What we know:
Layout: E1 2-5, H1 11-21, E2 28-30, E3 37-40, E4 46-55, E5 85-92, E6 102-111, E7 117-125, E8 131-138, E9 146-151, E10 155-165, E11 170-181, H2 193-196, E12 213-220, E13 226-233, E14 240-247, H3 265-271, E15 277-282, H4 298-312, E16 317-326, H5 328-339, E17 344-350, H6 356-360, E18 361-362, E19 365-366, H7 370-382, H8 414-427, H9 432-435, H10 439-445, E20 453-459, H11 473-479, E21 484-489, H12 512-521, E22 534-537, E23 543-546, E24 560-561, E25 567-568, E26 578-581
Parallel strand pairs: 1-26, 3-5, 14-15, 14-16, 16-17, 17-20, 20-21, 21-22
Antiparallel strand pairs: 2-4, 4-11, 5-10, 6-9, 6-11, 7-8, 7-10, 12-13, 13-15, 18-19, 22-23, 24-25
Helix pairs in contact: 1-7, 4-5, 7-8
Amino acid sequence: xxxxxxxxxxxxxxxxxxxxxxxxxxxxxxxxxxxxxxxxxxxxxxxxxxxxxxxxxxxxxxxxxxxxxxxxxxxxxxxxxxxxxxxxxxxxxxxxxxxxxxxxxxxxxxxxxxxxxxxxxxxxxxxxxxxxxxxxxxxxxxxxxxxxxxxxxxxxxxxxxxxxxxxxxxxxxxxxxxxxxxxxxxxxxxxxxxxxxxxxxxxxxxxxxxxxxxxxxxxxxxxxxxxxxxxxxxxxxxxxxxxxxxxxxxxxxxxxxxxxxxxxxxxxxxxxxxxxxxxxxxxxxxxxxxxxxxxxxxxxxxxxxxxxxxxxxxxxxxxxxxxxxxxxxxxxxxxxxxxxxxxxxxxxxxxxxxxxxxxxxxxxxxxxxxxxxxxxxxxxxxxxxxxxxxxxxxxxxxxxxxxxxxxxxxxxxxxxxxxxxxxxxxxxxxxxxxxxxxxxxxxxxxxxxxxxxxxxxxxxxxxxxxxxxxxxxxxxxxxxxxxxxxxxxxxxxxxxxxxxxxxxxxxxxxxxxxxxxxxxxxxxxxxxxxxxxxxxxxxxxxxxxxxxxxxxxxxxxxxxxxxxxxxxxxxxxxxxxxxxxxxxx
Length: 585
């Protein structure tokens, strides 16, 4: 028998709750990195730097504290913008020709203290020294180190540290370059894609997100609650399919800004000109949606199903709806997929949670601070008010009146939400609260429903929604018999870094995302199902193409705890106990 005793178990939740009670004013940012730049290469494969936290206002999710409106880095990280952060310039002495017969890239590791919360962003650095496209994100949560992999890295990058909470006061980072000769039986990144995708939708001439139709919809649910939704759809004669992003993070207001920009990112730029309507739906109790936020409770799937049927029935829609998103926005598609509304034809969940208990615990042991403080921490970020702390800068100038919205504190079911997070931290039990947020259990309880196709995506370097969320869930989804595809690659909590994800018309690289949506929302035959169903990237950057996820390639090994912090496959022959002090839990 193994007995667990945990030091400091009850002090940490009080510390986190106190920070939340003070709102965003005690969020953090970091001072200038030291040194401010460095390089890696085959001959000199490592670089390191560090930084120091200082207090600043930060509403989260923004790197504007490091870069001005033109994308140029500031001399000193500012505390006056919507975010404040720190950047390091990393130069990689390699080019595209170098990677012709090699695989690999650069791994970024950022180490923080057990009571610190930092996010890691990686951007390309343009030739003029301004910030280019974001290529990696790592959002590990409180006490978690951050990691990102830049596949076939070449040129210059900004490595950005975006801080929220600090106790230790410092962080440290390393960049490590690694390359090896490409194997003969492995397909390198993206090389097979262009040979099998075909007949994809092309952008309609002149159609952009900015000149498309923008509509606000209030989706009324059976209990009278209204979900706030914004739709952007192209000005086309034919009816179009709908792709929804169901999120707790949107603060309200038109996603197309008066300044000429928009909030739909690469998804909007890719899909809207190709004849798709793109919608942002605020989860019940978040943004400008009415009701109470219950963090993945059973009602959320029913709400999402209602929104799907609402938009499928619009006179401008062709009746087919898909969903996609990252993190919580990748969790809502999986939840409603189990619910199986008839108009949902496909989902593309990216870094999605399959079981809220598994997000917080591993076999009863809390994952750092999130195991015992997640519900309080998360509700404070997105459910504290109708606007939430993550409200983007595009909120309407005159606040939207939401008569039915309720501050989370006065929702009766918030008592259960908060209690569910705290009581399980004491005993580790997967009680009734968590059982209602286990999508795999729901799937097993109703296996015969007719469900939509699934394009499953997860970063194997994701230390926020950790890859163990794939365990059992991915096998169960694939075994359900629906059309299935998976990209499992060496990136963090973000969209895939493969060139064929968004595609590049100038380089003749098609978008596998467009091919997937075309196949299932427009009825085209694009060849997207012709390749092996699972494409898995090794830590060296190579891609393996297989038909089944790890089928026949794993075995179960039992480890026992030993003296001096060791583990062994041979268990103790005699009785007794081992005491383990978890100083990080």
